[in-house]
């Protein structure tokens, strides 16, 4: 069983690529955004707790996020592995994910980073914003603020996984098919 973390700034194509990779490799795509929305919509105990923090404008604590991920992993143990998208975002989250996976005799197999120039990604998101309906996809200043947060909090994870020889950079510019092929070349060698 494999466990892959898919990294990349907003607009890098993580969601698009995750759809292809989950089908090709029989992986469960675990998106923290999707998990939050599911738990909140279905008013699960964890969803209610998460909503309390969201209502206050606060980040959902790692413990709640990890517990949502655990539940998702445990109900999908019949797949060939997992593709984590949007988690971990910080070193403490990576440590918590590692501890959880170790408890079920798994570990992160690889971390794949979709790398692209910020200006190209901003243009992608602004284009996506024309149809996504997301206000944060329509404001260049907000997009660049998301990149600053990524650089501050998430970029250190690249070094974290490089030290474990588990980080693979992939050029995130090109057609969807070209990028899928680059990702597949990395995954096929794991």
TrEMBL record:
**GO terms of molecular function:** AMP kinase activity; ATP binding
- Main location group: cytoplasm
Q: Where does ATP bind?
A: 11-16, 128, 174
* Compartment list: Cytoplasm
InterPro entries (UniProt xref): Adenylat/UMP-CMP_kin (IPR000850), Adenylat_kinase_CS (IPR033690), P-loop_NTPase (IPR027417)
Q: Per UniProt, which keywords does this protein have?
A: ATP-binding, Cytoplasm, Kinase, Nucleotide biosynthesis, Nucleotide-binding, Transferase
- Transcription regulation is among the record's keywords: no
So what EC number does this one have?
Answer: 2.7.4.3
Question: Which residue intervals make up region (NMP)?
Answer: 31-60
Give the enzyme class: transferase
Q: In which pathway does it act?
A: Purine metabolism; AMP biosynthesis via salvage pathway; AMP from ADP: step 1/1
GO biological process, alphabetically ordered = AMP salvage
Which cellular component, as a GO term, is one annotated location? cytoplasm
PROSITE patterns found in the cross-reference section: ADENYLATE_KINASE
Q: Kindly list the positions annotated as binding AMP.
A: 32, 37, 58-60, 86-89, 93, 134, 146
Q: Which reaction does it catalyse?
A: AMP + ATP = 2 ADP
Q: Which family does it belong to?
A: Belongs to the adenylate kinase family.
What exactly does this protein do? Catalyzes the reversible transfer of the terminal phosphate group between ATP and AMP. Plays an important role in cellular energy homeostasis and in adenine nucleotide metabolism.
| Domains as described in the record | Consists of three domains, a large central CORE domain and two small peripheral domains, NMPbind and LID, which undergo movements during catalysis. The LID domain closes over the site of phosphoryl transfer upon ATP binding. Assembling and dissambling the active center during each catalytic cycle provides an effective means to prevent ATP hydrolysis.
- Summary of subunit composition and partner proteins: Monomer.
Q: Which HAMAP family match?
A: Adenylate_kinase_Adk
Name recorded for this polypeptide? Adenylate kinase
For this protein's source organism, the top of the classification is: Bacteria, Pseudomonadati, Bacteroidota, Flavobacteriia, Flavobacteriales
């Amino acid at each position: 069983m494999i466990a892959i973390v898919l990294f990349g700034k907003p607009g890098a194509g993580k969601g698009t690529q995750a759809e292809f990779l989950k089908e090709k490799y029989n992986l469960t795509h675990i998106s923290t955004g999707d998990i939050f929305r599911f738990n909140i919509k279905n008013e699960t105990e964890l969803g209610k707790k998460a909503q309390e923090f969201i209502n206050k404008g606060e980040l959902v604590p790692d413990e709640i996020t990890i517990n949502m991920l655990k539940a998702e992993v445990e109900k999908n143990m019949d797949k060939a592995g997992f593709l984590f998208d949007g988690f971990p975002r910080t070193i403490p989250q990576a440590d918590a994910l590692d501890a959880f996976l170790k408890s079920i005799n798994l570990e992160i197999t690889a971390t794949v980073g979709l790398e692209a120039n910020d200006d190209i990604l901003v243009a992608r998101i602004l284009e996506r914003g024309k149809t996504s309906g997301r206000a944060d996809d329509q404001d260049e200043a907000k997009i660049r603020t998301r990149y600053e947060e990524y650089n501050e909090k998430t970029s250190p994870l690249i070094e974290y996984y490089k030290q474990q020889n588990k980080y693979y950079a992939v050029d995130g510019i090109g057609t969807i098919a070209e990028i899928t092929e680059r990702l597949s070349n990395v995954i096929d060698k794991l």
